[in-house]
Amino acid sequence: MTSFPAQARRVRDSTLSPQRRLYALRECALHCAPYGFRATWHHLIVAARIPRRLSDDLDALVRAADELQRTRDVVLQRAQEYAALRRREKATGKRLPGTRPPWNSWGWSQIAYCPDPEHHPTGPLATVVQAVLDRHDAGVSVDRHCLACGIERHRPGRACPTCGVHPGGPAACWRVPLGEERWRRVWRRELDDRPTPFVR
Ligand SMILES: [Zn+2]
Q: Residues within 5 Å of ion ligand 1 by Cβ?
């Protein structure tokens, strides 16, 4: 019972305690973490508006699981298409792959790795992952453009100043240290300094 679908079912299971549902969501995020676990987790807390007291809005956990599910579906579909392409290529005697799949070279669960857990793209996760895969397929150079947000890169080898995605992925071994106290506040959803919606 550790697969993504099984854990996602637990998140949506209203008979379980809020804390158990939260831990199931963490398992889902460990399985599907396009920004790396910490940045993906921070995104989910903010985007799904998961409250500090979970019982205030239990639907937030479901919103977060749904977002991860949509993201995973995008990657799985690409992986299936790639597997079908490789079967066709092998059938015609082509043994070496013509294109490199990004989920193999970067680790599919960290397709848009963000070394700073609090600096990551702000759009829907599935949309960002789709954009990365589309730009990869189109042959966009990772040295010249950010595959996540599309801006032109002036400093190759550095995290994108706009969206926070690092072109080298986790293999770049470049990580912004986040104080453990700060991370505990993210985990406890004590994001008092998160941007508040503009109220007229
Ligand atoms: Zn970017």
A: 146, 148-149, 160, 162-163
- What's the 173 CA to ligand 1 centre distance in angstroms? 18
Sign of CA dihedral 18, 51, 11, 44: negative
How far, in Å, from the CA of 193 to the mean position of ligand 1?
23
Q: For residues 27 and 109, is the Cβ–Cβ distance under 8 A?
A: no
Q: Which two tokens stand for residue 59?
A: 């639907």
Cα-trace Rg, the chain = 18
Bridge partner list, 152: 145
Q: Hey, which of 39-48, 92-101, 111-120, 152-161 has the most confident mean pLDDT?
A: 39-48
Q: pLDDT per residue over 89-111, tens digit each?
A: 888 887 776 666 665 545 566 78
Where do the domains of the chain lie? 4-187
Q: Name the average pLDDT for the chain.
A: 86
Query: Distance (Å, rounded) from C-alpha 147 to C-alpha 115?
Result: 16
